[in-house]
Amino acid sequence: MTRPLGDRIRVQFERQILSGDLPPGARLPTEQEIMARFGCSRMTVSKALSALATAGLIERRKRAGTFVARPRVHSMVLEVPDLAPLIAARGQTYAFRLDRSEELAVREGHLAGRPARHLVGVHFADRQGIAVEDRLVSLAAVPDIARADLAREAPGTWLLRHVPWTEADTRITAVGAAPQEASLLGLSPGDPCLCVERRTWRGRDPITFVRQVFRGDSYELVAHFGPGAS
Amino acid sequence: MTRPLGDRIRVQFERQILSGDLPPGARLPTEQEIMARFGCSRMTVSKALSALATAGLIERRKRAGTFVARPRVHSMVLEVPDLAPLIAARGQTYAFRLDRSEELAVREGHLAGRPARHLVGVHFADRQGIAVEDRLVSLAAVPDIARADLAREAPGTWLLRHVPWTEADTRITAVGAAPQEASLLGLSPGDPCLCVERRTWRGRDPITFVRQVFRGDSYELVAHFGPGAS
DNA sequence: TAGTGGTCTAGACCACATG
DNA sequence: ATGTGGTCTAGACCACTAC
Q1: Residue B228: its pLDDT value, please?
Q2: Cβ–Cβ of B221/A172 closer than 8 Å?
Q3: Interface residue of B163, B194, B212, B222 to substitute, partner A, most A CBs within 10 Å
Q4: Which CATH class is domain B5-68?
Q5: Chain A window 188-207: which residues touch B at a Cβ cutoff of 8 Å?
Q6: Beta-carbon separation of B223 and A24 below 8 A
Q7: Where are any strands of DSSP class E within A64-185?
Q8: Which end of chain A is more exposed for a tag (fewer CB within 10 A), N or C?
Q9: Regarding the domain delimited by A77-223, which CATH topology (the fold level of the hierarchy) does it fall under?
Q10: Which intervals hold domain HTH gntR-type (chains A, B) (predicted)?
Q11: CA–CA separation, A151 and B5 (whole Å)
């Protein structure tokens, strides 16, 4: 049960960095010194340090050496849960109701100029509307969307199983509920809602644009930053 | 200007996967076959495929082979910009005003039972309040906080330079502005605001808890998912 | 210019899971 | 049982850059 040597090297420096023992800007030993200390070949040391560099914990500069990176403020991992299991986990019953489905030519956005299916619906938890969804799906990229049974399965869930995206942008804002949204969600107009807008691609082909408006009091997003594996 | 061989191997499979040429579940050639095709050693192939595996694009199983991974829905990279440069980039003038600074013993949360400094202040863009901030900073972890000049530099910026965190949780919700918040931000009570709550640690020591309430009409968060490097 | 990391080789032994 | 990936070695040459 002895862990790989490269892992032990990586974990040792990981610990020293996270504990503050090696503060940001500190210099690590050279590969030669680490080789000698662990009695291993240079390739093993190189792979261990490369992993730390990929993870952003260290920064390597030729001729100068290897240094503990200044922490990057600007990136955390955002959890993007699927609504159905999330609501089921709360002990509530999930449902989706499709209110509109039509074809149209998109005028703007990353789907501009393409024929698309326009889908509007509501996500429910125990008969309480918790989110309204307005979606465009490229017919060129997803011709099968016409045959999908979207009466109960949310378009997002269906899409994910049939045409998983490889690239996505998400924009998160707070908005006041529009009158129609408010009535669907059982709110008063202007009540705070979380608005999530997402554009997705597969390779370079745009797939879908979706705008989801969630009741502010029953939905939250969670993000995490940390060393991750260890 | 010839790219490293390992990179070329990695990029080739990356492209085939993202284009859908190699769909999820498809099997990649064995390392032996790739060695032969590129005329390189096995180590080079191994490093290229390991990088793809770390990135989550492929999955490697002994005796079975290497396969294109089923895409993971549930994680995107959330950009967490520092407010000052963000506002400067808009061509506005940034300022922070500290309204309260006191010591207290925290009762709940990840700082429970610890003495802390309680800081309340407002972020401004061109004299318009755009966010109110309520923060607790552990005195045990950051004794220097007492000496910090927080009159103009936001506590978050100061903290980042002096005690960078290594781990953080963020919760994003939509809330209605409380009366006091509304008056500070020039809103009416109940107007939609984006609420960001973050807990941070350095190693296992809790550092700070912060709740920021942003004007819904002048702040947004952006997240991205994609192959990243290429 | 000398020391650092970046990359690569041509082997090797091992663990493991599948056929 | 066998073929796959996991890891490691003991070298090597090169590019870059801080000294």
Answers
A1: 52
A2: yes
A3: B194
A4: mainly alpha
A5: 190-195, 202-203
A6: no
A7: 65-68, 76-79, 94-105, 115-125, 128-138, 167-176
A8: N
A9: Chorismate lyase (3.40.1410)
A10: 3-71
A11: 50
CA distance A201 to A98: 23
Q: Mean pLDDT score of chain B, rounded to an integer? A: 91
pLDDT of residue B229: 37
Whether nucleic acid strand D comes within 7 Å of the CB of B101, the answer is no
pLDDT tens digit sequence for A138-157: 999 999 998 888 877 889 88
The C-alpha atoms of residue B4 and residue B40 are separated, in whole angstroms, by 12
How many angstroms separate the CA atoms of B218 and B46, rounded? 48
Location of structure tokens 């990279």: B77
User: What amino acid occupies position A216?
Assistant: G
Through-space distance between the first and last CA atoms of chain B, rounded to whole angstroms: 16
Query: Can you tell me the distance from the alpha carbon of A203 to that of B226, in angstroms, rounded to the nearest whole number?
Result: 9
Residue B171 burial (CB count, 10 A): 14
CATH of B77-224, one of 3.40.1190.20, 1.10.260.40, 3.40.1410.10, 3.40.50.2000: 3.40.1410.10
Q: Over 60: is that where the pLDDT of A52 sits?
A: yes
